[in-house]
Write a structure and sequence with these properties.
With about 260 residues, the chain is of the alpha/beta class. The chain has two domains: about 170 residues, Rossmann fold; about 80 residues, no CATH class. Helices cover about 40% and strands about 25% of the residues. It has ten helices and ten strands. The strands form two sheets. Strands 6-7-8-3-9-10 form a six-stranded mixed β-sheet, sandwiched between helices. A four-stranded antiparallel β-sheet has the order 2-1-4-5, covered by helices on one side. β4 and β5 form a beta hairpin. The longest helix is centred in the middle third of the chain and has 22 residues. The chain is globular, with a radius of gyration of 19 Å. It binds adenosine-5'-triphosphate. Adenosine-5'-triphosphate binds next to β2 and α1. Keywords: ATP-binding, Nucleotide-binding, Transport. It comes from Tardiphaga robiniae. Involved in beta-(1-->2)glucan export. Transmembrane domains (TMD) form a pore in the inner membrane and the ATP-binding domain (NBD) is responsible for energy generation. InterPro entries: AAA+_ATPase, ABC_AA/LPS_Transport, ABC_transporter-like_ATP-bd, BCA_ABC_TP_C, P-loop_NTPase.
């Protein structure tokens, strides 16, 4: 990874993921710059979610390398990668619906927690202080999304509507103070207006956090156009184009692959 500059937070080189004979990712070189919102777009089955899965440790790379903040994370387990500052949301909600909003958000705070058995069982006061601190931070984050949500901190997640569940998932991704957040189809299961609202809220929080780096996978091109600094376009697991949305959208190769029109 000698090419890594200070400007690049995540770098993949020759990244390949194979499922049997299928190349879901095929020698992919992607740079994600510090502080940018990168859109990852492409037709169905082009490898977008596989890329998120392999950089977050859900899938193993068949070949190639990934580095995050200069650390080689290619063979790291998901929990280690998260401890290096990468968090994510999923296409389908992964909330534990029977647990409270607080419990769900606290699951995302592992990176900043002192959570050894000794600490939790014997150091009861320190443990309680940590839980209070997470509750405070969770309230603060929830309040940025929806001023009514902090009062629901100890309600079961199942009692929330879809848009608030998505907000809780995003708070879970943000509570551990990540450097890089992966958003996998934030519009899934929500109306156009709800998606716009939540994404505006994320961008507002991003600003207040001083420029969090985000990779967003999304089929809603209006949303991609509105929120991204740059886009990478995949087709059959390969990068076919990158640049500003308006430039990639006008590229004939992209139009043929993605929009079905040359
Ligand atoms: N666990 C898996 N086992 C086998 N094949 C898989 C697996 N995950 C993904 N694939 C295949 O890898 C290719 C890329 O899939 P992926 O889900 O990454 O595409 P995508 O661009 O995210 O698609 P979509 O836009 O439809 O979500 C597809 O052909 C898919 O069927």
């Amino acid at each position: 990874m000698t090419s890594l500059s200070n400007d690049v937070l995540l770098e993949s080189r020759g990244l390949t993921v194979r499922f049997g004979g299928l190349f879901a990712l095929n020698e992919l070189n992607i740079d994600v710059r510090n502080g940018e919102v990168l859109g990852l777009i492409g037709p169905n089955g082009s490898g977008k979610t596989t890329f998120l899965n392999v950089i977050s440790g859900v899938y193993s790379a068949s070949a190639g390398k990934i580095s995050l903040g200069g650390i080689d994370i290619t063979r790291e387990k998901a929990h280690n990668i998260s401890s290096y500052g990468l968090s994510r949301t999923f296409q389908r909600s992964r909330l534990c619906l029977s647990l409270s909003v607080f419990d769900n958000i606290a699951l995302g705070a592992q990176r900043t927690l002192n959570n050894g058995l000794w600490h939790n069982v014997v150091q009861r006061k320190a443990f309680a202080a940590e839980a209070r601190k997470i509750a405070e931070e969770a309230r603060e984050l929830l309040g940025v999304f929806n001023t009514a949500l902090p009062d629901k901190l100890f309600d079961p997640a199942i009692s929330l509507g879809m848009i608030d569940r998505r907000r809780v998932e995003i708070c879970r991704a943000l509570i551990g103070k990540p450097k890089l957040v992966l958003l996998d189809e934030p519009s899934a299961g929500m109306t156009h207006d709800e998606t716009d609202q939540v994404v505006d809220e994320i961008l507002g929080i991003r600003k207040s956090l001083g420029g969090l780096t985000i990779i967003i996978v999304e089929h809603e091109m209006g949303l991609i156009e509105r929120v991204t600094d740059r886009c990478v376009v995949l087709n059959y697991g390969k990068k076919i184009c990158e640049g500003k949305f308006r430039d990639v959208a006008a590229d004939p190769v992209v139009r043929e692959a993605y929009l079905g029109q040359a």
